[in-house]
C-alpha cells in the first residue's frame, strides 16, 4: 500500500515538473531577449559542454530575458562542441572575429566574457556564478 502512495507522489511530481517546463518554454518563446551574453571560448574541450549546459540553468535564460552567443577558436575540439550545442540549445554560434553589436540583430545590453583557456575550476569561480546571477 505504501508503494502505491510513493508511485502516486512520483507521478504527481513528474506531472507538475512537465507543466512547469511547458509554461516556461511557452513564456520564453514569446518574449524577445533583452540582453546578450557573448562568450569567447577556446582550448576548453574538456569544460565547454559542462559550462554551456550550466548557463542554460540560469534564471535569465529560462525566463527568456537573455540570449547567448558563443565564439569558439583554437586548435582543439571546443568549436565542434559549441557547434553541436548551438543546434541543441538554439544559441548563436559566432564565427571567429565576428563580434556582436553590429547588424540588424543588435541587442541592447551585451555582457562579454573572454573565457579562453579557463578550466572547470576557473569557470566555476567567477564567470559561471556571475552569469547565473544575471
List its salient traits.
single chain; 134 residues; alpha/beta; four-stranded parallel beta sheet; 6 helices; 49% helix; elongated
Strand content: 15-25%
Written as H for each helix and E for each strand, in order along the chain, the element string is HEHHEHEEHH
The secondary-structure class comes to alpha/beta
The average pLDDT is 79
N→C terminal distance: 46 Å
Largest sheet composition: 4 strands, parallel
Rg of Cα set: 18 Å
Which overall shape is indicated by the principal axes computed on the Cα atoms? elongated
Unreliable sequence segments? none
Question: What does this molecule look like?
Answer:
With 134 residues, the protein is of the alpha/beta class. It has six helices and four strands, in the order H-E-H-H-E-H-E-E-H-H. It has helices spanning 2-30, 48-55, 59-62, 78-89, 120-125, 127-133, and strands spanning 35-42, 66-73, 92-94, 109-114. It has a four-stranded parallel sheet. Helix 4 (78-89) links the parallel strand 2 and strand 3 (92-94). The chain is elongated and about 60 Å long. The model has no long low-confidence stretch (mean pLDDT 79).
Short overview:
This protein has six helices and four strands. It has 134 residues and is of the alpha/beta class. The model has no long low-confidence stretch (mean pLDDT 79).
Present the secondary structure layout.
Layout: H1 2-30, E1 35-42, H2 48-55, H3 59-62, E2 66-73, H4 78-89, E3 92-94, E4 109-114, H5 120-125, H6 127-133
Parallel strand pairs: 1-2, 1-4, 2-3
Amino acid at each position: 500500500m505504501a508503494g502505491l502512495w510513493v508511485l502516486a507522489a512520483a507521478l504527481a511530481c513528474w506531472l507538475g515538473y512537465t507543466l512547469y517546463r511547458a509554461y516556461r518554454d511557452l513564456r520564453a518563446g514569446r518574449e524577445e531577449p533583452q540582453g546578450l551574453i557573448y562568450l569567447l571560448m577556446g582550448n576548453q574541450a574538456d569544460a565547454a559542454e559542462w559550462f554551456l549546459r550550466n548557463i542554460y540553468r540560469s534564471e535569465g535564460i529560462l525566463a527568456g530575458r537573455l540570449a547567448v552567443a558563443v565564439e569558439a577558436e583554437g586548435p582543439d575540439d571546443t568549436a565542434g562542441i559549441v557547434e553541436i550545442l548551438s543546434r541543441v540549445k538554439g544559441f548563436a554560434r559566432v564565427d571567429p572575429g565576428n563580434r556582436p553589436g553590429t547588424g540588424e540583430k543588435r541587442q541592447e545590453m551585451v555582457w562579454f566574457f573572454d573565457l579562453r583557456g579557463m578550466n572547470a575550476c576557473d569557470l566555476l569561480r567567477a564567470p559561471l556564478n556571475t552569469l547565473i546571477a544575471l
